[in-house]
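2 proteins. here.
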Amino acid sequence: MNRETDLSVVLLILACAAVTFVPRILPFVVVRNLSLPRAIQKWLSYVPVCLLTALIVQGLIRKAGDVPAVDGLNVAVAVPTLLVALKTNNLLATVLTGIVAAALLRIVF
């Protein structure tokens, strides 16, 4: 490899980092000093729950041929994790329950 190739790779990596970083940080910087209406604040409060739900459901469903199917192992991990989340409302306990349940079930099955 020559020096030009190395520089182009570095520039590509920096550009990819900027494209990833800017859309994630720019909205926070823009609205940080704004006073948003209560309705918009309430609407925005649902975004993390919606995104997390989409990620979880995506993990619970797998493709079996042309038909979606439920992934039993992931459901078995999700059930105790959800119960701990609802009971304790503690993020650390929820995450640890999910990790331990996944490890134990993967060892057994």
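next one coming up
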Amino acid sequence: MSKEKFSLPPVSPLMGTTINNFIKIVSGNAIKPKYFFKIFLTALIVIVLTPFRWYEKLIFHRKVSRTIIVKPIFILGHWRSGTTFLHNLMCEDPNSGFVSTYQTIFPNHMASKWLFGAFMKRVMPDKRPSDNVKLSMEFPQEEEFGFLNMNPHSFYNYFYFPYRYKEYYDQAIHLTGLKESDRKQIRIDYLTLLRKAQIMTGKSQLVIKNPINTARIKFIKALFPEARFVHLMRNPYTVFLSSKKFFTSLMPTLWFHEVSDEEISDMVIDLYSKLYSDYFAEFDVANIVELKFEDLEKEPLSSLGKLYRDLNIHGFDAAKPFFELYLDKQKNYKKNTYIITKAEVQKIQTNWGFFIKKWGYEFPQNMKIV
């Protein structure tokens, strides 16, 4: 198992959920005894924070019901495909709103940010150890962790209980086994999450990045008929190694039972296939702009300008100085280097060959096979 982990206190990000949601998420799962204290401490915090959730409803209920989201932008793409880079870059636009890292942990306590934000600043690491990307509670973040803290049917349950990842995927993407009341609540909670993001940022142009949305385009279109999509793809060989490193680093800080590095590797292979099989099944229901990360990385401003034009997003010229400033700060960013085994190359070619061919990728020249 990877020894490179996030340095976090013995409490789960589930501390920002409700007690009812917490019980639904953890009940019926196999929890290793070594994580009992973490479960207990997290549950205790959830209970203590309950009055703040009542305060949240008092402050936000009417605001949320009156908020209208117009033409949101959704960034699609598998984990480690460069979606974080594109998301952060687009959110430099002064018109862009987003779900913040704080909101993903405390979606039910936005009115108490003055209090819980101070706590987050003290415990959050400065960088993700898997890729050196800077972290801050104010930065844009994928909203799925926030959604999980509002609703028990998020795919990100698998971070806590990875042995059930197939079940969680079918439930989150295909709504397998869910009652109509559950499906309705999913829509309500997701809308509430994004409306709060718009309220908190005060911006009208929401930019949302969430890998799992790659497979649920129809769901998004049903909520936002005028939604705009950009799909970011990257060389699958690089995505595999980067994803494997990322998940073997992140998952041990979150899970309540353990799986091996080999199981995580197999999970990456399977999830990629599932995600893109569903993506292509839903591709025709929306106008999607596809962009290769390699092109974005090589010519970020020209690629972003074209993206703005293709998606009919206004304000590129006015936002350009903010983009340039952000890109200038990224010049010293150190990328990971990768070594891949022959067995892994074979596994990728066997399972992802269709996608490699469809997007015109080849084996990276700077990747070493051992």
